[in-house]
Structures are given as C-alpha cells and as structure tokens.
Amino acid sequence: MLEFGRRRRQLHRSSTELDRGAWIGRQASGLTRLKAEVKVMKKTKSVLYLLIVFFAGSLTSSIHEWLQPITTIRVTNASDQVIERLDIQYSSSSAGIELKGRIGASIAPGERVVFKGPTYSEASYQLTAHFVDGSQITGGSGYVERGKTTADAVSKDKVMTTTWSFFMPYKHETTLKRP
Q1: Are strands 175-177 and 136-139 parallel, antiparallel or unpaired?
Q2: How many whole angstroms separate alpha carbon 156 and alpha carbon 78?
Q3: Number of structural domains found in the chain
Q4: How confident is the model over 27-63, as pLDDT tens digits?
Q5: Residues 38 and 108 reside in one and the same domain
Q6: At 95, which CATH number?
Q7: Is residue 159 located within the same domain as residue 92?
Q8: Pairing relation of β-strands 149-154 and 70-77?
Q9: DSSP letter at 175?
Q10: Boundary of a domain, candidates 64, 86, 109
Q11: Which of 30, 63, 126, 163 has its CA 20 to 30 A from that of 178?
C-alpha cells in the first residue's frame, strides 16, 4: 500500500509537471504569435508612413508645379504710379510657342499679375510696362525653365528679377530699355 501511495504521488507530480510544461509551451507559442503580430504591425506601419510621405511629396509637387510643363512669371508694380498696361513677349522654342499680348491693365502700386506659360524645357520673355504718364520700361529675365517661378518687380527706372535656385533667391536687374 505504501508502494502504491508513492507511485500515485509520482504520477501526480509528473502530471503536474506536464501541466506546467504545457502551460509554458502555450505561453511560448502565445509569445511567438505576439511577436509575429508585432512584426506585421511594424511592417504595416512602415508601409503606411511610406504612403503618407509619398502623397505629401506629390501634393507639394503639385502645389509648386514642379516638373510641370508650365513656367510662372509674377510681375509686381514696385513703382509709385499705376501701370496703364503690361505687355509680354513670350517664346518657348521647345514647345514651338510664341506669345505676344497684354497680361495686365491698370495695375496699381504694389499689385501683382501672374502669367503662366507652357514650356517643355526652356523659354524666354520680355516685359514692357507702360505707365500712366506715358513713360515705359522694358525688361525681364529673358530665360526661364520648366516648372520654375520668376518674380519681376517693375519700378519707374528699373526691372528687378528674382529667380530661385535650390530655394535660394537670386535678385538681379534685367532692365533693357529705360525711360
């Protein structure tokens, strides 16, 4: 009988140890599953971040018209007189386009006019501002690129052009004919 009791305790002990081992095994498999789920979540999060960055870049590019076949020319009246009319001669040899025309009339001091012209690589332009007192001034960058923006400030005695290269502004005088 004593023998039977000892044997029974051994069986009981071994089944308890087996239960502990199974419990540890279940915990280990649960931990493995948890690690696998965390890995999937990290990959999903990485893909989500990548998509967000891509769409943010696309939106920024669209807003700034980078790499678009458009050139933007902003002209500001920096004089103390009203510009009666503002004419442009725009030429894009790559697109085969020659434009001549009026882009603004009765432009008050400090007011801005925006011209967008089609180009596939390079273009050139020349501005002629006719003031109310009868005087006129001619100028302009003469060279613009696809997707770039040029800003011209027309005053009574000069035309100042600002171009940007790697987000750094470069100002220079581009007056061709003075009053």
Answers
A1: antiparallel
A2: 8
A3: 2
A4: 556 667 777 788 888 888 888 999 999 988 888 877 7
A5: no
A6: 2.60.40.2890
A7: yes
A8: parallel
A9: E
A10: 64
A11: 163
Which structural domain, as residue segments, surrounds residue 96?
70-177
- Alpha carbon distance 132, 84 (integer Å): 5
Q: Among 22, 38, 64, identify where a domain stops.
A: 64
CB-based contacts of 6-14 (< 8 A; 24+ apart in sequence):
none
CA distance 18 to 152: 85
Return the bridge partners of 125, or none.
Answer: 90
Tokens of 15: 């089944």
pTM above the 0.85 mark? no
Chain CA centroid to CA 86, Å:
30
Long-range contacts of 172-179 (CB under 8 A, 24+ apart): 173/139, 174/139, 174/140, 174/141, 174/142, 175/137, 175/138, 175/139, 176/126, 176/138, 176/139, 176/140, 177/136, 177/137, 177/138, 177/139, 178/137, 179/135, 179/136, 179/137
Residue 99 burial (10 A CB sphere; 0-12, 13-18, 19+)? middle
Residue 143: pLDDT band with limits 50, 70, 90: confident
